Amino acid sequence: MFECIFCDKPCKRSWCPYTKENMKEAITFADVLLVPQYSDIQSRADVDISVTSKCGKIKLGLPIFSANMDTIASVTMAKWLHGHGAVASLHRFTDISTNCTEWLASPPETFCSLGFNDNIRLEHLYDAGCRNFMIDTAHGHCKQMGELIQFIKKFYMNTVVVAGNVATADGARFLVDNGADIVKIGIGPGAACSTRSQTGHGYPQLDAIFECTKAVPNNSCIADGGLKKPGDMVKALAAGADYLMVGSMLAGTFATPGDLIADVLHRSDISGESLDNKMNFAPVGDTRSYVFSGKMEKTYRGMASAEVYERYNKGGVQKSAEGVSVTVPYKNEDQSNAIIQDIVGGLRSGLTYSGARNVRQLQEKAKWVKITGAGREENKTLADK
């Protein structure tokens, strides 16, 4: 029983939104800025952005996981990110044989994704040598998640288990109590995710990071979703995340799977045949036999989108879509590498503004200021207006 500020009477509900304690204001990246502090760092090159997981088994020179989405995850992505010190996570929406083949073709630290009914997939991947697993579901604070984590930890030795997604302290503690090594944070902040508008549930991502990382201080956490620019990534690390899961920032890069979508003027290898339409074709092979109007795109979609469901769950019961599918500009290898360089530069600069030589120092030293709507407007450049 507690007093309700709305009706001024004792409330019998187990949770009432009209109490000051319960109706918390939560923030996300655009609501705050990090306060600049004194720095004795003479060069960004003196900053170390590598992170070793608190379980001691994962060390990344660039603390980034690629999103385990079918329009992001690929062997090419795994190799490309490995070259930059980051790591990929392969998606689970493929047959087991192909999954094992792709993992074997990827750098050994690559993660493989699992769902709640993937015990056979788990067994084959483990036998193939995989030890890094990512249990992937939109709402990770659930019974099936706890049971699967316990099962893996009991019967599959020397594994690293990333589990998620959650957005609350209780959710993070639940995953760790059941044996998760790394917690993945984020309910609805992703650019291709519509969970919040479709279900009414979610949690502003920066506050979710604060709460989850504070709840499980001995475990590393991944901030998954809501990262639009390097500044958001710096804020996520400062709030306590050790790693960053990136989807939309890598969408359309040369390493992503799927067909290119292009406006084709004509195809030169068929007697000058003119084609005034959009067409799909693989990015490797005969692409140079086409003449383009200049615009090339790739698909980027959430893994709970209707398009994903229709592709991988034929004959199943239709579920409510909690994701969207869009096209994004294609980036060639040079343009893709420039994206990574921009992220690395932003992270290094971001640490120097807080006088931090590494990510752990950033987390210890970070100071925050909440900004107004006018402050958010002031943050915009001419390109944003």
Provide a descriptive summary of the structure in words.
- This protein is of the alpha/beta class and 385 residues long.
- The chain folds into 2 domains: 36-254 and 337-366, Alpha-Beta Barrel (TIM Barrel); 260-330, no CATH class.
- 30% of the residues lie in helices and 21% in strands.
- The protein has helices at 75-83, 96-104, 119-128, 143-155, 169-177, 195-199, 205-215, 230-238, 306-312, 333-353, 359-365, 373-379; strands spanning 2-3, 10-11, 32-34, 51-52, 59-60, 64-66, 89-90, 111-114, 132-136, 160-166, 182-185, 220-224, 243-246, 260-267, 274-281, 290-301, 325-329, 368-370.
- α8 packs across α10.
- The longest helix is centred in the C-terminal third of the chain and has 21 residues, at 333-353.
Count of β-strands: 18
- Which fold name is given in CATH as the topology of the largest domain? TIM Barrel
Quickly count the domains: 2
Q: What is the approximate shape? A: globular
Radius of gyration: 22 Å
Helix content: 25-40%
CATH architecture annotation name of the largest domain? Alpha-Beta Barrel
For the termini, the CA-CA separation is 49 Å
Q: Give the integer mean of the pLDDT values.
A: 86
**Could you name the CATH homologous superfamily of the largest domain?**
Aldolase class I
Order of helices and strands: EEEEEEHEHEHEHEHEHHEHEEEEHEHHEH
Outline of the structure:
With 385 residues, the protein is α/β, with parallel strands linked by helices.
Defining key terms:
385 residues; alpha/beta; TIM Barrel; 2 domains; eight-stranded parallel beta sheet; four-stranded antiparallel beta sheet
